[in-house]
Amino acid sequence: MIACRGSQSQALRIWIVVLTDLAVIGELFLAMYLAHTRREQFTAVFAGVFFGLLIPTIALAKLLLRRLAPPEASGDPPEAVSPEGPMIQ
Amino acid sequence: MDWLYVTMPIAGVEIFWPGLLILGLGVGIIGGFFGMGGAWMVTPGLNILGFPMAFAIGTDIAHMAGKSLISTMRHSKFGNVDYRLGVIMIAGTVGGFELGAQMIMWLERIGHVDLFVRVGYLILLGLIAWLVFADVLQKRRKEREARATGKLQPDAAGGIQWHKTFHKLRIPPIVHFKAAGIRCSMWLPVIVSFFTGWLAGILGIGGGLIRMPSLIYLIGVPTHVAVGTDLFEVAISGLYGAASYTYKGRTELVAAIIMLVGASVGAQIGSVATKYVRGYGIRLFFGVAVVGCGVSVALKLIGSFSSTWRGLLDAAATVLILGLVVALSGFIVLRFVRGARDELRMKRQREAAILSQR
Known about the structure:
The complex is a heterodimer.
Chain A: H1 2-37, H2 42-68
Helix pairs in contact in A: 1-2
Chain B: E1 5-7, E2 14-16, H1 17-34, H2 39-49, H3 53-77, H4 83-110, H5 113-149, H6 163-166, E3 174-177, E4 182-185, H7 187-203, H8 208-219, H9 223-247, H10 253-273, H11 281-305, H12 310-357
Antiparallel strand pairs in B: 1-2, 3-4
């Protein structure tokens, strides 16, 4: 049961990462659209909208990921990449 | 849909900005996977999308700095970064980079920057392609010989092994690099990093394209540590380079941010994909991508000499470079998804077996 709960939590963490990535891309499109409507202040509008949305999104995602992290895990498992290396043996 | 085309505030050129996002995403996947900034695709890509060459270099370096930091943190968790080697290489990287950046400013003043950088790219890509294909052919020849003699060929024994010669240079101080598991003269990584730093400054690349093979073939670093250490070095040279080119007014920050969004997503996919994708054939695929990128740069170069064919050649170069990024990143994602699916299936089988035992 513990193993099942662990894999559920892991799946949820993956979903949070995926949704965060999609949200950030959505925020980029919104910032570019709004900046395009005020061309004389393009950079300021873009930066204001994009970072104004990005920072809370990342902070929320971090918070959720930390809450869902298994208690013993302080990082990713060290065996995630094999010693043979990624592409060349 | 005219808002998808914007005039960049500093460079003053009109750009199809989702193209920057796609370029960033693809290059992020490739960079995270191969352990390089992927800038050898980005600078020509930006130039082909419409940025003047000096802006393409500056913007590329700015986006690369952020992207490499993300990938370095990821690889660091896997123990793939030799920080001692990385720190020793910083001096050479920064010194070489500034020399390259000053050369670019001088070439821009005399009006030869585009020609010089494109020819430089052609030479570099040609060398890399040769190195990759020669290595693969040598490995296959050794495998054939091993089969003929009936001896098993260990995977690690194949390919070019120049580092064994370079390790015979015993110029003090001799340093032991724990994560990489090698002992060599400190001057070897310093010289390699100075040269790669110079290339980074002059071509707007992180240097990974040449540094990663150099770490493997000249210094003898295992591939997985070369990937992580190279990304650490790319992040350092990228941060220094971004500051240097921004100070010189040649960085388009909005474009860099757009690319960074794509690249940060791509780098996560690419670095995790290293867990699932193995095999020497990947090198061959990478070599083909390098050749394709070289052809794209050549088309752009030829187009600059012919006013009649310029439009057609430029369009062909754009399709080729974006097609390459999409094909290579698509291949990595496909293998990643397949590997992850297999892993999940095995995990479920293990869990089911444990439950049935109870």
